[in-house]
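#onboarding

Welcome to the new folks! Below is a worked example of what a typical request in this channel looks like: someone posts a single protein sequence, and someone else replies with the predicted structure as tokens. Don't worry about understanding the tokens yet, we'll cover that in week two.

Example request:
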Amino acid sequence: MNIFRTILQGMLKKPADAANAGQSDMAYEPENVPGVKPTLVHTLYEFQDCMDLTHRAYPEIGVDVLYFGHLVDNHQLAQDVLNPILHIRADEVHMLLRQTQFWPAADSKELIEGILSGQVAIFNGADTYLVNVSGPKERQVSTSESETVITGPHDAFNEQAGACLSLIRKRVKSSHLKVIKLSVGEVTKTDVYILYIQDIANMLYVREAIRRITNIEIDAVHDSNMLIQYIDDNPMSIFPQFLTSERPDAIASKLAAGRVVGIVDGSPSVFSAPTSFFEFFSSSDDYYQRWMLGTATRLLRFLAFGITITFTALYVSVTTYHYEMIPENLLLTIAESRSKVPFPPVYEALLMETTIELLREAGARLPTKIGQTIGIVGGIVIGQAAVQAGLTSNILIIAVASSAIASFVIPSYVMSASIRLIRFGLILLAGLWGNFGLAIALAAIVIHMSGLTSLGSSYLTPVAPFKLEDWRDIFIRAPFGLLVKRPTQAAPPNKVKNKMRR
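Example response:
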């Protein structure tokens, strides 16, 4: 064992770097773990073959500086680090490093992580210091493209966790807003921040969210929509169990309602939990308009949900098995329209639904102006050509187009995509068993959602379990004077949010 240990230590030494540092007799610490004293040799070995690492040596004063140029603010680097070092003597270095912007690195792990996060490492003999001059280029705060509103704030989160935190802090100016920092990913070491408001959020949900995130053992996490798939209550479900949003005002309202919020560094989407199925049909616009307009718009979204999942399937069911449900005048029109179509209604419907999805995906991937042209021109040309060629009927084109338009009404893109996929299953069952198959499919969806949970809370709250008082802000948007209590799903210790009396 001693022989193998000697060979291993010999392999881990890097003579070239040691010679450059004037410390050729120093051995490399084999593991980057807390408690290991940081040294220049060890740090250079950790970053070997990293050509973007900048190493500045000042042998006349015994100082070495390490940093990544693309992670630091060059102006702040020159002002706080490089210029002071260039204009001091060797006996003044100790006094310079005692200034508040420099702090000693506790161990090698802290040093490595500091350099990777945009800090500058300064080596002076046996002492090692870090100074924060990070200034990575970041996207400016702009409007949200996926959650547009007519009235209300238009700013949106960007990919920098610090910017996301600042946007939330500007709206929630309370010392009770707590932030817990976690790290996910053995390779990426992505920062994840858990936010909650003390005395409003239920700590059971906070601890459960932290437990699930800390138990993740993977190499990389790049986005919040990726992270929540690892902490879902039911990963096999098609329905999203965490609500994601790019809007700071929406997330601030979730915090005030007692929910737990998560920010993933590098992602413009922030997630909140626990959530229910009905929350995905709410929009910030509902609260910035008069309550009657907000209520009408919200009810319209639930109507759109029913249309988008059943309209095409109902067409297939009726035209295949249940002609008696069609009025006589309309029946003649449908019969004439389908007289030249060689396919059964189920194949006809699947063909057109697939075509619509192809156009939708093409429009999303192409540049904005070209995508809009493809969506409009492609839909008109292909639809008209399909009818003239006898591949489909006019009535089906109307049904498919209505279903597609209704899917756009749902504010959440993730929920909208899930519903579109469900539509194909309903079409297949309607083609097999007619209305009976359609009823079976709808019952299966309800049964499945009844068994779903979000952080252990029922996914169908406030319908199951039944909480009538929560209906004021689920199916309708009641006047603010009636929205007295926070949602019961979050089980907040402090239930009252509106103490105004009129």
